[in-house]
Amino acid sequence: MNTAQDLSIYLVDDDAAFRRSVAFLLDSVGWTVVQYDSAQAFLDAHAQPPADLGCLLLDIRMPIMSGLVLQQHLRSRGWHAAIVFMTGHGDVELAVQAMKAGACDFLEKPFKDQALLDAVDQAVQRTRELQQHNQRQAGARARLQRLSPREHEVARLVAQGHPNKTVARLLDISEKTVHVHRQHVLEKTEVANAAELTRLMLAADAQALD
């Protein structure tokens, strides 16, 4: 049962009776469900990702705009929504296409209640993991922004494993100056040593030390 109410399930399907059935099931285990009868209605309502978006349940075939096209629109906007597609018989090839484009899962109608609940739980877990990653990244970037341009140069070289002597040669400054900058870097970023600095820089940007 879902006990955390911070995230909601967004359901997009043109079949009103089906939407009611799915919403009733999800509501019975504690999820808040927001319903839309078309992909366009969802897009019109959300210029930005909803703050409480736990996952999207999308019908793969809908009039005017399909679930696949909606997925493409969201990707073009830079959204990283966790999507579970619901497909009819014979739509497996489309579902595979959706999975290749980043969907979490697909369910072939009619599906068992537990299959839907499991798929939603897994999709929401992906959302939570992404949120945690984004929070760690934002925190790491904020700490590194405290550095001056020169301190950032020193930090990058130290995080790459270079000793002070090498850093001094590469930056054409004295080893004593490197030592001073290095101490300032550790103090400003609130890390104890070069290993922690390396982890911090990689948390801010996975390619930071390339």
Automatic annotation (TrEMBL):
- Superkingdom is Bacteria
Q: Where is the Response regulatory domain?
A: 8-124
Where in this chain does the record put each HTH luxR-type domain? 140-205
Pfam families registered for this protein in UniProt: GerE, Response_reg
**Leader sequence residues:** none
* Keywords per UniProt: DNA-binding, Phosphoprotein, Transcription, Transcription regulation
PROSITE patterns given in the database record = HTH_LUXR_1 (PS00622), HTH_LUXR_2 (PS50043), RESPONSE_REGULATORY (PS50110)
Record flagged with keyword DNA-binding: yes
Which residues in this protein are found as 4-aspartylphosphate?
D59
Would I find Chaperone among this entry's keywords? no
This entry's Gene Ontology molecular function terms read: DNA binding
GO terms classed as biological process: phosphorelay signal transduction system; regulation of DNA-templated transcription
Q: Name the InterPro entries on file.
A: CheY-like_superfamily, Sig_transdc_resp-reg_C-effctor, Sig_transdc_resp-reg_receiver, Tscrpt_reg_LuxR_C, WH-like_DNA-bd_sf
| Protein name (database record) | DNA-binding response regulator
Q: Where is the organism placed in the taxonomic lineage, from the top?
A: Bacteria, Pseudomonadati, Pseudomonadota, Betaproteobacteria, Burkholderiales
